[in-house]
């Protein structure tokens, strides 16, 4: 490995300090080895291009360091079960060992005086601080920070500062950037012989390659140590597959010792010459003061929060939890890459292999649509680029139009494994990739939501309309018109995955109905407003006006399962005849209910895995009468086991909209603890990105009661008295709004843009112009506009 010349800039201690506002910090004090895997997920740093788990730099017995690069998938063909591509773990770039008199510092040996890790959510930085007592009894104070730059997404940065109380001879500092160690069940990037490097300059680079997808990845890194401002060159051990820099030191009391490491990553996914790009980019950064990297990153975070913060006044734990959600959602997305989407655990862990589900469109997307439209657009463009794979899947299963993959990587092809192997070797088929079809309607729903919120005509005409038409086509081919004159969709899996192969799942049918109607409406709109674009698209897709009429007709005939006598929507055909299980009898079990009852018994029971009819009511709120919403929530809520992290937030949102603040806040608390208290027991595999998106929605669309319409926004807010105030920001068709909801008073300010029509509760809609502020008061149960 050859060296990139390092020109050391002015040295200095951290000029940057973490926020001291406790409401912007998540802290972990002390050290508990058993919690290490979940801390690694929770405290991960990510910018949507690259994400790194918060593993200890010096490692521990349980450390599981992993850095994931969006879109870099590979398949472990030797894996047990049905191998599918998964995010490949990139080299561990943050290893740093500290040896005093030959003895390595390890937290689990207990020789620290105190230890604290903290995410400064406001600036998107992971901090760590501790005092370490050496064998000889001296004290070293260590302060470190780490980030994945939001200002320059190819850049990772780490900085460590040591101060000693007394002099220490014989200190050895060793910084290593190397491929992660092999672990069962993980695909890692290895320095495989890639096709030869294109620029002949292998500099301080690790060049790696995926096996099956042949993606080249270049990791350029350089560490530098400065003592009281003076640069100290490292000893570099030559090695083709790792970069090892080390320093032998005599530490003197009172002098700051600062180690900075800059890492730059490029892949052949985005550039032709990743190695040259990484080397060049790193070189340019090495000429600058590293504090600038921190400052630019912190500014980028501040800017994102200005557009997306949610304040819950009066409840510090919930306040931190919604910011924690924002922290991971902001870090999960890259608006510059429309060829990837966000996996179920974003870039923070291995669970679900980095695969993309409906989680993105239904749970996370509203956050982006309303706070960062360019990111929402990129995510939807991913689905646009996946259309050919979705058409192919529909065709393969005997349908028309586009059926999106239940699990995707970056190709859009179906990546759900066909089966799993139980520990005793039993093969269990996984049917979701074949039967969970509601995802096509979910994507269409997200397209329409984005269109409503942004009026982005270019997107609609270039991509969105085609998604709406092709998904509608799928639904028009998926069902059957029966003798009863109704359109039925048989043999599906709905969001409630405990019941497989069911007929007329209310969620699937009504979302499909909505998709058909929406596509018909979009066709009408195109014909009227953009006739040329309609002709072009209709010609390319071989679409005739009467096809849209048929969508309309099928939507009208869709079997919905609504019993007009009782107001209940039957979850699926035959659901009401299933065994009635009283979930409260199983309340104290930590295990998921399907594991307690067993798969077969669960299928014969009426236990629902996660919000399904309740989800439908939430998404299509205005389609149902207040009675139907209430009756169904009361019926399904006690029968739902919340076997998925996606469920509590939606229950919180629906209960809040119904004005049941006690149930709403109970579920909101539950949703807020999924990662922070690891209450599903699996945060080790990464944060639950959909649950975090759901938490944001429960606050803004649930308690805030926000709904998007064709002509503007409507609110039916319910602020729990204990919260004192719920405040949030959003952008609607270019107008930036600040919403301040208190239990009996609401104030909305339009800070820029063209203005927006707002309907508060059942008050008459009012126009809020740019620079204006409006105020409403709750009087005898009704919102009344008052002068602000
Ligand atoms: C849930 C799905 C979800 C997936 C990934 C499953 O347990 O049932 O709805 O898409 O996890 O989060």
Automatic annotation (TrEMBL):
Q: Which GO terms describe its molecular function?
A: carbohydrate binding; glycosyltransferase activity; hydrolase activity, hydrolyzing O-glycosyl compounds
Q: Which residues carry out catalysis?
A: 497 (proton donor)
Which InterPro entries does this chain map to? Answer: 6-hairpin_glycosidase_sf, 6hp_glycosidase-like_sf, Gal_mutarotase_sf_dom, GH65_N, Glyco_hydro_65_C, Glyco_hydro_65_M, Glyco_hydro_65_N, Malt_Pase/Glycosyl_Hdrlase
Looking at the record, the residues that make up the Glycoside hydrolase family 65 central catalytic domain are 323-697
Offer one example of a GO biological process linked to this entry.
carbohydrate metabolic process
Q: Taking every annotated instance into account, which residue ranges of this chain make up the domain Glycoside hydrolase family 65 N-terminal?
A: 28-269
Query: Any idea which positions bind substrate?
Result: 358-359, 609-610
Q: For the Glycoside hydrolase family 65 C-terminal domain, which residue ranges apply?
A: 706-760
In its keyword annotation, does this UniProt entry include Transferase?
yes
List the Gene3D superfamilies hit by this protein, alphabetically.
1.50.10.10, Glycoside hydrolase, family 65, N-terminal domain, Maltose phosphorylase, domain 3
Alphabetical list of Pfam families matching this protein: Glyco_hydro_65C, Glyco_hydro_65m, Glyco_hydro_65N
Recorded hits in SUPFAM superfamilies, A to Z, give: Galactose mutarotase-like (SSF74650), Six-hairpin glycosidases (SSF48208)
Keyword set, alphabetical order: Glycosyltransferase, Hydrolase, Transferase
- Family named by the database record: Belongs to the glycosyl hydrolase 65 family.
Under the heading PANTHER family, the entry gives: GLYCOSYL HYDROLASE-RELATED, PROTEIN-GLUCOSYLGALACTOSYLHYDROXYLYSINE GLUCOSIDASE
What is the name of the protein in this document?
HAD-superfamily hydrolase, subfamily IA, variant 3 family protein
The protein's organism comes out as Methylocaldum marinum
């Amino acid at each position: 490995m050859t060296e990139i010349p390092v020109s050391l800039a002015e040295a200095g201690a951290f000029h940057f300090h973490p926020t001291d506002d406790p409401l912007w910090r998540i802290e972990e004090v002390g050290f508990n080895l058993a919690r290490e895997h979940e801390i690694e997920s929770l405290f991960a740093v990510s910018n949507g291009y690259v994400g790194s788990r918060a593993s200890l730099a010096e490692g521990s017995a349980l450390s599981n360091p992993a850095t994931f690069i969006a879109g870099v998938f590979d398949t472990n063909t030797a894996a047990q079960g049905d191998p599918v591509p998964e995010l490949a773990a990139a080299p561990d770039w943050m290893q740093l060992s500290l040896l005093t008199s030959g003895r390595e510092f390890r937290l689990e040996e207990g020789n620290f005086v105190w230890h604290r890790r903290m995410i400064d959510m406001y600036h998107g930085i992971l901090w760590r601080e501790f005092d370490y007592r050496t064998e000889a009894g001296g004290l070293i104070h260590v302060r470190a920070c780490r980030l994945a730059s939001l200002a320059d997404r190819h850049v990772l940065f780490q900085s460590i500062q040591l101060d000693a109380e007394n002099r220490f001879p014989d200190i050895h500092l060793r910084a290593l950037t190397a491929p992660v160690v092999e672990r069962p069940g993980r695909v890692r990037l290895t320095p495989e012989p890639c096709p030869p490097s294109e620029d002949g300059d292998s500099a301080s680079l690790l060049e790696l390659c995926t096996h099956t997808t042949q993606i080249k990845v270049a990791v350029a890194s350089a560490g530098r140590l400065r003592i009281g401002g003076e640069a100290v060159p490292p000893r570099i051990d030559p090695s083709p597959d790792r970069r090892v820099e080390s320093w032998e030191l005599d530490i003197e009391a009172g002098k700051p010792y600062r180690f900075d490491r800059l890492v730059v990553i490029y892949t052949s996914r985005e550039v032709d010459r990743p190695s040259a790009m990484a080397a060049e980019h790193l070189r340019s950064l090495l000429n600058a003061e590293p504090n600038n990297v921190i400052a630019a990153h912190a500014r980028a975070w501040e800017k994102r929060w200005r557009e997306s913060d949610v304040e819950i006044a009066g409840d510090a734990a919930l306040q931190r939890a919604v910011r924690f959600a924002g922290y991971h959602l902001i870090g999960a997305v890259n608006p510059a890459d429309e060829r990837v989407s966000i996996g179920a655990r974003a870039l923070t862990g291995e669970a679900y292999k980095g695969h993309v589900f409906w989680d993105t469109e239904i749970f996370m997307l509203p956050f982006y649509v309303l706070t960062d439209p360019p990111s929402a657009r990129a995510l939807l463009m991913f689905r646009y680029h996946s259309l050919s794979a979705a058409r192919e899947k529909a065709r393969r299963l005997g349908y028309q139009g586009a059926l999106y993959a239940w699990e995707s990587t970056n190709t859009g092809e179906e990546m759900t494994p066909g089966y799993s192997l139980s520990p005793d070797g039993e093969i269990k088929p996984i049917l979701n990739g074949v039967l969970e079809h509601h995802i096509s309607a979910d994507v269409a729903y997200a397209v329409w939501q984005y269109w409503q919120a942004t009026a982005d005509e270019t997107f609609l005409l270039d991509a969105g309309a085609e998604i709406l038409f092709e998904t509608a086509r799928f639904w028009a081919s998926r069902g059957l018109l029966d003798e009863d004159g109704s359109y039925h969709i048989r043999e599906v899996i709905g969001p409630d995955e405990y019941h497989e192969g069911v007929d007329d799942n209310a969620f699937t049918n009504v979302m499909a109905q909505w998709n058909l109607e929406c596509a018909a409406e979009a066709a009408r709109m195109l014909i009227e407003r953009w006739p040329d674009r309609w002709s072009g698209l209709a010609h390319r897709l071989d679409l005739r006006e009467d096809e849209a009429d048929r969508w309309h007709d099928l939507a009208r005939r869709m079997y919905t399962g609504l019993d007009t006598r009782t107001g209940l929507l039957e979850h699926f055909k035959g659901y009401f005849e299933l065994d009635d299980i009283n979930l409260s009898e199983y309340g104290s079990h930590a295990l998921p209910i399907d594991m307690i009852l067993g798969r077969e018994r669960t299928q014969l029971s009426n236990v629902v895995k996660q919000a399904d009819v309740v989800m439908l009511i939430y998404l299509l709120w205005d389609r149902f009468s207040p009675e139907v919403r209430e009756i169904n929530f009361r019926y399904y809520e006690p029968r739902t086991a919340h076997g998925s992290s996606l469920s509590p937030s939606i229950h919180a949102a629906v209960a809040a909209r119904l004005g049941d603040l006690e149930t709403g806040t109970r579920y909101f608390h539950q949703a807020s603890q999924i990662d922070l208290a690891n209450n599903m027991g699996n945060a080790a595999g990464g944060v639950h990105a959909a649950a975090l998106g759901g938490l944001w929605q429960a606050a803004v669309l649930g308690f805030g009661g926000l709904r998007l319409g064709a002509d503007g926004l409507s609110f039916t807010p319910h602020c729990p008295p204990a919260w004192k105030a719920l405040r949030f920001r959003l952008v609607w068709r270019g107008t930036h709004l600040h919403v301040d909801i208190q239990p009996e008073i609401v104030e909305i300010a339009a800070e820029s843009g063209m203005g927006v029509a707002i309907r508060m509760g059942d008050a008459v809609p009012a126009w809020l112009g740019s620079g204006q502020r409006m105020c409403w008061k709750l009087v005898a149960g009704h919102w009344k506009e008052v002068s602000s």
